[in-house]
Write a structure and sequence with these properties.
This is Phosphomannomutase. It is built from 14 helices and 22 strands. By secondary structure, it is α/β, with parallel strands linked by helices. It folds into three domains: 153 residues, Alpha-D-Glucose-1,6-Bisphosphate, Chain A, domain 3 (3-Layer(aba) Sandwich); 103 residues, Alpha-D-Glucose-1,6-Bisphosphate, subunit A, domain 3 (Alpha-D-Glucose-1,6-Bisphosphate, Chain A, domain 3); 79 residues, Alpha-D-phosphohexomutase, C-terminal domain (TATA-Binding Protein). Helix 9 links the parallel strand 12 and strand 13. The chain starts with 11 loop residues before the first strand and ends with a helix. The mean pLDDT is 95.
Length: 454
């Protein structure tokens, strides 16, 4: 059983438990068959690498998917429990397409899958549509199994993943840092000891045990309520900073020594300047929601900025097209040329630790130079019919702002902007506002929300 709505713009996500599941094990098996065919590995023509997160349904869904691939003669290299960025690493390291079973930050009753081609190259939306259509067709026309089934092998790539990250950012010379790590019972609980355990760090772990029921807080650091525990732990222990991962640990939020959340745009600027020091004149990719501080700082550092739509498919494509050294999104996805253009929260964390560990300044003082504007953060609202709301917002701000529809609706005024866009994965309308002062942000936010939530 597959509800076609589980196929999102960039991946698959849907409810798998409870009274109204949107896909099941038979559906995962059919998607495995379809993926083998679309990726061109059926009938003994190749292999894919498969990873999964700690959700209670991930072992059986990943196994059903693998059985589908094997039945069509495709080979599967199973790396077992992994973060999504470890799966991207495996795809690049082994030069194979990859599939990661995860629903990222969604609640525990969800599961999903993220796909990539060899070298962690993104799957195009049309290819995901092809997988969807083929999987749905299999309920009416079952696939004939291959004459020779594929082969399943297991590999542990966690040590190689950690070694690769350390080859990109060396922490051996940093001063001793006290660091809170909140894994939210997600895959950061597996990768943190492997990557950070050998560094000159005193680690204070929060919720490092893997638990797909997420008993402590939802694995979504975009929601401020899910950062409270890490903020409190920084203050309680006098830590230098905290890093907070989402469920599949491909995103990383940072909290400074005061317990204040550091804007992902400031982290983007910090890492961009570090990477441009290695590659003068390089390109930096950002999305429409990133602070206008970033292009200014990139230009001052001798780099050039490429702006794209929100979403890893668009950012990765822009990274490849422009040979960009680094990319950052407002949602705390950070992309690196030296990581096959893919996103990795752990490598971003290493950059922040290296930056703090090689100065005597606290993190709050360090990031001050990268923060020139006030921002609202992302504010989500459930909206049944999006287009009339966007039209009304455009009318409300007519004469004060220039509209564009590159990604949702962006209204750009004198030193400020308002962006409203529908989520790719959830039935939500997302609002972001930036302006020179907090008071201007609050006024613009309230004006927009009055229409969005009317």
């Amino acid at each position: 059983m597959i509800d076609s709505r589980i196929f999102k713009a960039n991946d698959i996500r849907g409810v798998v438990t409870g009274l109204s599941p949107e896909w099941d094990l038979a559906g995962a098996h059919a998607i495995g068959i379809a993926a083998a065919e679309v990726l061109g590995i059926a009938d003994g023509n190749g292999a894919l690498v498969l990873g999964r997160d700690m959700r209670t349904t991930s072992p059986e869904f990943a196994a059903a998917f693998a059985d589908g691939v094997l039945s069509r003669g495709g080979n599967v290299i199973d790396i077992g429990l992994a973060s999504t960025d470890e799966l991207w690493f495996a795809s690049g390291h082994l030069d194979l397409p990859g599939v990661m079973f995860t629903a990222s930050h969604n609640p525990g009753n969800y599961n999903g899958a993220k796909f990539c081609h060899a070298q962690a190259r993104p799957m195009q939306p049309a290819e995901l549509v092809a997988i969807r259509d083929r999987a749905l067709a299999l309920s009416d026309e079952p696939s004939e199994p291959a004459a020779t089934p594929g082969r399943l092998t297991q590999r542990d790539l966690l040590p190689a993943y950690a070694e690769h990250l350390h080859s990109l950012v060396d922490l051996s010379g940093i001063r001793r840092l006290k660091v809170v790590v909140d894994a939210g019972n997600g895959m950061g609980g597996l990768t943190t000891p492997a990557v950070l355990g050998s560094a000159n760090l005193e680690l204070i772990g929060l919720y490092l045990d893997l638990d797909g029921g997420f008993p402590n807080h939802p694995p979504n650091p975009l929601e401020p309520a899910n950062l409270v525990d890490a903020q409190a732990a920084v203050r309680e222990h006098g830590a230098d900073l905290a890093v907070v991962f989402d469920g599949d640990a491909d995103r990383c939020f940072v909290i400074d020594e005061r317990g204040e959340v550091v804007s992902p745009s400031a982290i983007t600027a910090l890492i961009a300047v570090r990477e441009l020091a290695r590659d003068p004149g390089g390109a930096i990719v950002i999305n429409k929601i990133t602070s206008q501080s970033v292009p200014k700082l990139v230009s001052a550092a001798g780099g050039r900025t490429v702006i794209t739509r929100v979403g890893h498919t668009f950012v990765k494509a822009a990274m490849a097209e422009h040979g960009a050294v680094f990319g950052g999104e407002h949602s705390a996805h950070f992309y690196f040329r030296d990581f096959w253009g893919a996103d990795t929260g752990m490598l971003a964390a290493l950059h922040v630790l290296a930056a703090v560990g090689t100065t005597t300044e606290p993190l709050s003082a360090l990031v001050e130079q990268y923060t020139h504007f006030a921002a609202s953060g992302e504010i989500n609202s459930t909206v049944a019919d999006v287009e009339p709301v966007l039209a009304q917002l455009e009318q409300q701000f007519a004469g004060r702002a220039v509209p564009d529809r590159v990604d949702g609706l962006t209204l750009t005024g004198d030193g400020w902007w308002v962006n409203v866009r529908p989520s790719n994965t959830e039935p939500l309308l997302r609002l972001n506002v930036e302006a020179p002062t907090a008071a201007e942000v609050d006024a613009l936010r309230d004006e927009a929300l009055a229409i969005i939530r009317a």
